[in-house]
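Notes to self after the Tuesday call (sharing in case useful).
The group wants a holo model before anyone commits to mutagenesis around the pocket. I volunteered. Ligand is cytidine-5'-diphosphate. Logging inputs and output together so the record is complete.
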Amino acid sequence: MEKGLIIAIDGPAASGKSTTAQLLAKKLGYLYIDTGAMYRACALKAKKLGIDINDEESIRNLLDFIDIQIENDNSKNRILLDGEDVSEDIRADDISSLASAISAIPAVRYKMVELQRKMGEKGSVILDGRDIGTFVFPDAEVKFFLTASPEIRAKRRWLELQQKGIDKDFSEVLADLVKRDNNDSQRALAPLKKAEDAIEIDTSNMTIEEQTETLYKIILSKLEEECKCS
Ligand code: CDP
Ligand code: CDP
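Result:
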């Protein structure tokens, strides 16, 4: 096969998309595109410039001079905003809700989706996000929709915060996560939604390894299928 697959992984926050996508990309030698990181970078830029996230006109203007690059190397996936490595800064807790708010602005989505399509059109790529299988690449050859219960996802996020030395109440982490899922599911343009032809996998009781292996097997059978057809 010449082009390589386009693999879409969608799902709510902390369903395990990015960890699995990175591991799969490594196994397959594919490019990994973390589309959430791109919305986070937009939010970070607005924050740095002191722009209110509800000020749509200023946000639209910001899009004319934003440069977002994604770099994969062996061990790390880096995101560059206007040439600066912001991979850590975009993970700050307040950036999650700012990213969710900014991502509901249509001009922001159109700009990010255009970049994502350009990066992914050559194939051999895994993208994770909320709208990859429904909107960015509706013709992706393999689509997954990962889920897990809100409590388990919040527990995962809470543990991540603890590991970073951030002491936040579990109930607050859970409330923030549920609120963000609601925002993402209810926005008008390209909301968080399972594509009809996506394979849904509940990761609640899976380890990262089990989850990655489950997806990997499905991808391998798709690759074999494509080889037989071409
Ligand atoms: O990308 P997404 O927000 O969907 O999730 P993630 O960042 O890949 O995973 C969130 C956290 O949950 C990470 O710390 C993962 O290691 C952890 N996780 C887990 O412990 N078990 C799983 N089956 C999936 C994720
Ligand atoms: O890792 P986590 O699930 O916490 O979030 P993320 O994937 O980094 O995405 C941050 C926010 O960006 C999400 O809450 C969505 O509002 C937005 N997003 C989106 O709208 N569309 C995507 N394809 C990816 C992220």
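Two things stood out.
The CA atoms of residues 37 and 78 lie 9 Å apart.
The pocket of cytidine-5'-diphosphate (ligand 1) is lined by residues 11, 13-19, 156, 160, 203, 206-208, 211 (CB under 6 Å).
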